[in-house]
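Quick one before lunch.
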Amino acid sequence: MKIDEDITSTNPVAVGDFVEMEVENEAQGTAVITTIHPRHNYIIRSSPHSRYKNHIVAANLDQAILIATLKEPRTSQGFIDRFLVTAAAYHVPAVLIFNKQDLYHQKENERFGMWKEMYESMSYPVFLVSALKEEGLEAVRGILAGKTSLFAGHSGVGKSTLINDLIPELELKTQYVSDWSGKGMHTTTFAEMFELPFEGRIIDTPGIRELGIVDMDKTELSHYFLEMQQYLTECRFNNCLHVNEPGCAVRRAVAEGRINGDRYESYLAMLVTLEKPEW
Ligand SMILES: Nc1nc2c(ncn2[C@@H]2O[C@H](COP(=O)(O)OP(=O)(O)O)[C@@H](O)[C@H]2O)c(=O)[nH]1
Ligand SMILES: [Mg+2]
Ligand SMILES: [Zn+2]
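Model of the magnesium ion complex:
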């Protein structure tokens, strides 16, 4: 992915930036930011005000955590895979937390088991919690400790509830959600950073379900499907898109069950969105 250093941004400073400040007025407690230190990574989305400008959502992340659910609402695999690909393209390690365990029955538990096995085999950490019943939180504290983590996920999956469990004195407003379409439920769109009582920080991005936008070449996409990486050099053509080219090692691995078929479907679905009209 091209991370353009001269990106036209609507916000010069973002959550997570390390800055130098000079006190401007001691009595009023105001200061001026004089320097922004170079960012080791950042995620962007297009500005709501201008489609030619980008908005830096957050910077200097140690990891991006997707809060997903198998019920109320159910997160699709396509959505999870887009998140993982985008995180990889932004050079941010990704973690999956499945919430609302207390609502799961056999069907959901089986699906969780399948996803856990599959995503862990790609080296993504996977957790199961109930934010409501405060179950499974010790492991979550363990992965958050000492790090700056971005929380993402659809509205209603329990991000605020989970953050309140981790930082009890915070008392974030949680939402009563009766409509899982997600429309009209966002209270704010500004990312906020919270200090954890056990060292570490959470960046909550209300209204941002995905990890922003990614501008990548079609041939780059398979590099961000971590389980495909090992096959890429075995394809007959080095610009193989793994669709219908002869001698494709990725398609062979799918056919032989070494790459999950649903992951390959996610790959094809994303590839189409990168397709640019040729004129
Ligand atoms: N059953 C159940 N409900 C939950 C759980 N976590 C959150 N909720 C509920 O889901 C709704 C949305 O939660 P909220 O934290 O506001 O989600 P956010 O939009 O991601 O911040 C609220 O009604 C919560 O009480 C959970 O673990 N189990
Ligand atoms: Mg919330
Ligand atoms: Zn191929």
